[in-house]
Every structure is written in C-alpha cells, then in structure tokens.
Design the sequence.
C-alpha cells in the first residue's frame, strides 16, 4: 500500500518497468489510456492514504477520482484503489472487475474479461501472478507466488506457489511457474530476479 511519497515513487517506477518504459514521455502518457488510468489510480491511492488533515489533498483526490472514474467506464475497468501491489500491467482495455476486498501482490499481469470477485470472501493473490483473459478468481482463497492462471479458468480454491493452473474448475496443469512460461519480458524478469 502507498503510505508516503517514497512508496508512491517506487510504485510508479515499478509500474512503468512492467510496461517496459524507462522514461515516460508525454506522448506515451496521453496515447496509452490504460497507463494513464493506472498512473492516476496510483496518485489517487497516494492522496487518499496520506490526506488525513490536509484539505487540499482531499480536494485533489476527489477531482482525480471523478476524472479516473469516467476513464474507467470508457475502458471497462472496475479496479478499486489499494488492491494491487507495484508492477501492475494491464494488458488491454476491456472488462476487468476487481473486488475492493481482494489483495494482489506485486508484478501482476492481468488481461481483459477477468474478474477477481468477492463471494464469501475475496482472494489473496501472491506476487508475479499472470491472470489470463477471461479468468474468474473468487472466494476466500489464496493464490501463491509465481502462478500462471490460464485463459477462462474458474478459480474457486487455493493453489500453491510456482504452478500453472487452468480449466473450469481450475486445476494444476503444470509445475511451471509464471516466471518460466514466457509471460514476462526478459528485461522485466531480470528486474524481478534482482528484487528476490
């Protein structure tokens, strides 16, 4: 969770690395709506989490929340604040619905037509998790680190670290982790390995 300016900058830096961006240009910011939504979401998280006793931050938070909500409707995103860790990568615009009670670790790659829902509890998802197009993850479950969730998987039970899951209902189909399946770029893999 973003709790101060230093953490905010770390989140932004790691999010940009997930998009393979070393230096953000105005052109890229204005032309990539997914990225613009995400960077604004991080600013909203920062303002919300640090605005206690600061009316200017609260006003700016409200303004950015309204602007980002309009963009979220256009993109099909229902992504609440303070759910995703740093290094989030939204692959495409399209329907992405996430419960505000869910918790997702760092370096998550998420595709459209996915749902991380709240059904008798919300999921806790680890670090370096790939969520394929159309995946549904719901319930009071936990997904380990380095898990790849296949397209259209229906995940309603917990899974350990370093596996690939798919199917409806989801089951382990491989002992390969998300770091071994090729879903992350070589540069970003180096960054992840340097963190560990």
Sequence:
């Amino acid at each position: 969770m973003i709790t101060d300016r230093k953490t905010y900058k770390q989140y932004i830096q790691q999010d940009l690395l997930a998009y393979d961006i070393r230096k953000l240009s105005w052109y890229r910011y204005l032309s990539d709506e997914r990225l613009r939504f995400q960077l604004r979401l991080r600013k909203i998280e920062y303002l919300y989490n640090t605005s206690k006793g600061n009316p200017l931050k609260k006003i700016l938070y409200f303004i950015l929340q309204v602007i980002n909500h309009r963009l979220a409707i256009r993109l099909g995103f229902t992504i609440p604040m303070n759910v995703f860790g740093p290094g989030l990568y939204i692959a495409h615009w399209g329907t992405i619905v996430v419960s505000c009670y869910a918790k997702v670790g760092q370096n998550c790659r998420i595709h459209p037509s996915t749902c991380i829902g709240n059904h008798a509890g919300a999921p806790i998802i680890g670090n370096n998790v790939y969520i394929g197009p159309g995946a549904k993850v719901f319930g009071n479950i936990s997904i380990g680190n380095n898990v790849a969730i296949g397209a259209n998987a229906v995940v309603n039970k917990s899974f350990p670290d370093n596996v690939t899951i798919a199917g409806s209902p989801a089951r382990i189909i491989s002992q390969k982790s998300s770091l071994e399946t090729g879903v992350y770029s070589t540069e970003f893999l180096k960054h992840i390995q340097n963190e560990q």
About this structure: The mean pLDDT is 93. The first strand starts at residue 77 and ends at 78. Helices lie at 5-18, 26-31, 33-50, 55-75, 186-195.
